[in-house]
Design brief:
Blueprint: E1 4-10, E2 14-21, E3 26-33, E4 45-46, H1 48-66, E5 73-80, E6 85-89, E7 99-100, H2 108-126, H3 135-145, H4 149-154, E8 158-162, H5 163-171, E9 178-180, H6 181-184, E10 190-191, E11 196-197, H7 199-205, E12 214-216, E13 219-224, E14 236-242, H8 243-250, E15 259-263, E16 267-274, E17 285-292, E18 295-304, H9 308-317, H10 327-332, E19 341-343, E20 361-363, H11 371-397, E21 404-408, H12 414-424, E22 428-431, H13 436-448, H14 455-459, E23 464-468, H15 474-491
Parallel strand pairs: 1-5, 5-14, 9-12, 15-21, 21-22
Antiparallel strand pairs: 1-2, 2-3, 4-7, 6-8, 10-11, 13-14, 15-16, 16-18, 17-18, 19-20, 22-23
Helix pairs in contact: 8-13, 9-11, 11-12
């Protein structure tokens, strides 16, 4: 009888259910977008009930495409958006407010205040800088601003969690309230040295510990799907991890110094730094990669807020393209950007700048600027932002980076991948399975039920599809990066009153 493994990738713009067989080949996929809500400028929300419905729908789609029964699935692994967080009533299962998304900036001024008082302490304990990006200030906002929440917390009715906690709670019919070490490290509340929620930070932010989930390893059996809620099937949920760490795992980056970049709504580069946290003086985050077998693997994290979302903006906002896949052809149709640079700082700049008041800047426009130039400038902006992070990663880790593994939707874009290799000056490797977030979640699930016993077994499963070698001269590269950095400086601090 064939074995099937399910990887559930709950991302910022949609949910993917990926079914893999015992040879670790992708056999079927379900995908569903969910709505983005923007109640005010700088606010971004999701409806958690819609996300839960989409999970069921995508799993059903994948099972039907593979022509299998849901009960044929051996285990489920899931990955989540990271910092996106919500609170819900554990008696009714109803969210008290929408999920507040990682891109949301409503707590920026609050984050500034917290940083001025506790910034150093929080960075030392959590590895992250105080920023509205992380879950902590979002949890605090919901507690302080949503009517009746404080009273319900006193009555033990409310629990909080990132979207992994919500998914597992729903899949198990409210029996299990957990998160894993990697996701907990994205909240700004986890002490990465002790592996516990930090009492000093919780007290400083006035967040009650009792509403938070239990922290568990990234691969173990957390519970089983409830047949009432999940197609009549009882399947072990045995892997859970934050999305970017899932991709690091799915890319088999198990050795210190191995690097992957995932291209999605944003762009996220992670480097495995082994069993010790590496602190970055130049703006990268120190985070947990995964917790396995009572050991913690750490990573350096360079996050870019807006990459694929800039392409979506060209499609939905400016309407200069009809579909995202057009952009590569448009970019290729001109030799250069005609001097145009686009800094897509729609919700500030993340690593290595950490300027929450930067805003999108399109500069160098002349009467001769066409939509092709803007399309190319958008593509190039993605590669430049990745390059900025890789440069800092090299410097701060002291580890030479010889190749970058890539995944996510944009790796199908040959123009972008070649330009990325050119601007980095190192090869860029695209794997056979590019949905490595869902793949990494499925790998962890299999590990959690004992299908794999060590990471070397998994490493041998990674397959190369295509390598892009750099072709650009170092002189051209330096000139382009110099102009890019001039544009970035102009975008900074724009929204500060």
């Amino acid at each position: 009888m064939k074995k099937y493994y399910l990887g559930l990738d709950q991302g910022t713009t949609g949910t993917t259910a990926l079914l893999l067989d015992q040879n670790w080949d992708s056999v079927a996929r379900g995908y569903k977008e969910h709505k983005q809500y923007y109640p005010k400028p700088g606010w971004v929300e999701h409806d958690p009930v819609e996300i839960w419905d989409n999970i069921l729908e995508t799993v059903d789609m994948a099972a039907k495409e593979a022509k299998i029964s849901i009960t044929d699935i051996k285990c489920i692994g899931l990955d989540n958006q990271g910092e996106t967080v919500m609170l819900w009533d554990k008696a009714t299962g109803i969210p008290v407010y929408n999920a507040i998304v990682w891109q949301d900036r409503r707590t920026a001024s609050q984050a500034d205040e917290i940083s001025s008082k506790y910034g150093e302490m929080i960075h030392e304990k959590t590895g992250v800088v105080v920023d509205a990006y992380f879950s902590a200030t979002k949890i605090k906002w919901i507690i302080d601003n949503v009517e009746g929440v404080k009273e319900k917390i006193e009555k033990d009715r409310i629990i909080a969690g990132t979207l992994d906690s919500w998914m597992i709670w729903k899949l198990t019919h409210g029996k299990v309230h957990v998160t894993d070490y990697s996701t907990a490290s994205r909240t700004m509340l986890l002490n990465i040295h002790t592996g516990q929620w930090d009492d000093e930070i919780l007290e400083a932010l006035d967040i009650p510990k009792k509403i938070l989930p239990e922290i568990r390893e990234s691969a173990e059996i957390y519970g089983y799907t409830d047949p009432l809620d999940f197609f009549g099937a009882e399947i072990p949920i045995s892997g859970s991890i934050v999305d970017q760490q899932a991709a690091l795992f799915g890319q088999a980056c198990f050795k210190p110094g191995t690097v992957k970049t995932t291209y999605g709504t944003g762009c996220f580069m992670l480097m495995n730094t082994g069993d010790k946290p590496v602190y970055s003086p130049n703006g990268l985050l120190t985070t947990i990669g995964w917790g396995l077998n009572k050991k913690t693997t750490f990573a350096l994290d360079g996050g870019v807020y807006i990459t694929g979302a800039a392409v979506q903006w060209l499609r939905d906002g400016l309407k200069i393209i009809e579909k995202a896949s057009q952009i590569g052809e448009l970019a290729k149709s001109v030799e250069n950007t005609g001097g145009v640079y686009f800094v897509p700082a729609f919700s500030g700049l993340a690593a290595p700048h950490w300027d929450q008041y930067a805003r999108g800047t399109l500069i160098g426009i002349t009467g001769g600027t066409t939509r092709e130039h803007i399309a190319r400038a958008t593509e190039e902006s993605i590669a430049y932002q990745v390059s900025d992070n890789l440069e800092v990663m090299r410097k701060d880790s002291g580890i030479p980076i010889e190749v970058m593994r890539v995944d996510g939707g944009a790796v199908k874009d040959e123009f972008l991948m070649q330009f990325q290799a050119d601007i980095l000056g190192i090869p860029v490797d695209v794997p056979v399975i590019t949905e490595t977030t869902a793949l990494g979640a499925a790998y962890l699930a299999a590990y959690g039920i004992g299908e794999f016993h060590d990471l070397n077994e998994l490493e041998s499963k990674w397959k190369l599809y295509k390598r892009y070698e750099p072709k650009m001269s170092s002189e051209t590269r330096e000139k382009l990066l110099y102009e890019w950095h001039r544009a970035v400086e102009r975008s900074k601090g724009w929204a500060k009153e």
